[in-house]
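Page 47, continued from p. 46.
Same chain as before, 502 aa.
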Amino acid sequence: MDWNLVLVTVVTLLVAGYLYVKKQFQYWEKKGVPYVKPVFPYGILEGMGRTKHTCQIFTAAYNELKSQGIFGGVYFFTKPVVIPTDLEFLKCIFVKDFHYFTDRGFYVNEKDDPLSGHLFALTGQRWRNLRNKLSPTFTSGKMKMMHSTIIAVAKEFQNYLAPFADKKATIEIKDVLSRFTTDVIGNCAFGIECNSLKEPDTEFRRIGKRVFEFTSFEFVRIFFLIMFQDLGRLLKMKINKPEVSEFFMRLLKETTEYREKNNIKRNDFLTLLMQIKNTGKLEGDDMDLGKMSFEELAAQTFLFFIAGYETSSSTMTFALYELAQHQDIQDKARAEVNGILEKYNGEYTYEACMEMKYIDQIINETLRKHPIVDNLLRICGQDYHVPGTKHIIEKGTMVSIPVYGIHHDPEIYPDPEKFDPDRFTEENIKARHPYAWLPFGEGPRICVGMRFGVMQTRVGLANLLSKYRVKTTPKTAIPLVLDPASTVMTPKNGMWLQVEKI
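Result:
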């Protein structure tokens, strides 16, 4: 072997690669767009998944760019990405010019990974068709139908906490809340009694945790698949872990076949999807939604699980973290809950829960300060002239909306680190720009399951606060430390709080 030739080849490839990256890093400069200076070869993603959470990375970029125009540029590795910094421009992206920014840009490979074909990730007309099918399953009437199931699980949750509260024990509340939401979603999405509160090591719970467990390598792999989707599909790469896909596909196949064979109907999401799958309609509704395949049903049920399980448990975790530090706010919330329960004879009826306005303010402020999804992605579907500028965002360019940065902007929310539910009184909401609060997105692609998530969170918090008080302990991490390896905002090493009876 000619080692000199090998050496020359390797050096040539390295130099060529370096020059290619350097050229890519000139994109925004050549366009005259303000940009964050990239770090070779990561762009702005240096430390992502290892030492920095994505919310810290994107917020730093937002803060650097916001004084330089209505948007700026960054790089995800070598890929140029737009960071909007103006709320009116966000209105264009979300609503006014939505037809330019329809797609989220997430990886979909239905052939090799059927569970990836869910509403959150699908593009174009397929997304529109599926959205039209699923929207009727999330009306207030359908939410009311599932409410009793949530209440039943919430009572088990309340009883589970009793022995810990008797001892004024310190518990890892994030784990307990994750088990609560696992049981709720297991019941409402799959019609399965998971019993995670009693048996935390069930297969359903174990697989559910695997969905959100990522190594640094897996974290980077997800970004690779988002940025190089055609190559990912060519290589038959999957975004979901094999054991996760196998478990959920098997579970749904067995459950749907058993229900159809025995003509079983339940007040859950799966029953609604099975009606659409088999008839193209919801029972009692003449609207023709069009049938769906089993694979489509499986993907949507899987999305219902991953969206409702992690987001709601994390929201409750952060809410209790704040309430443990602000006993006056906690007392006010408890007084509201108990006053409403007295009015409804101690029953957590749907109507009673809907009256808990201060609980909703706490949820909204929690999602302001701790948005579970800290940034939102869109893809520019065709060349787009940015209003009021000379700039064109080219077709295929990714847009990353820095939700956490906007929520912590002192010009929008004075003293942003202060936890203040009064920011979300009706009067204060009306006084603020409508696109200043984005935990669920906005526009036609706003989270379709938002009502369910808020309902589940409201019921969980109300049940806990009516009977128990939460307090910080020496084990509580203050200030909060986020897990950099998580794709959503979650506390590192859990959330330790003391629970005691009122």
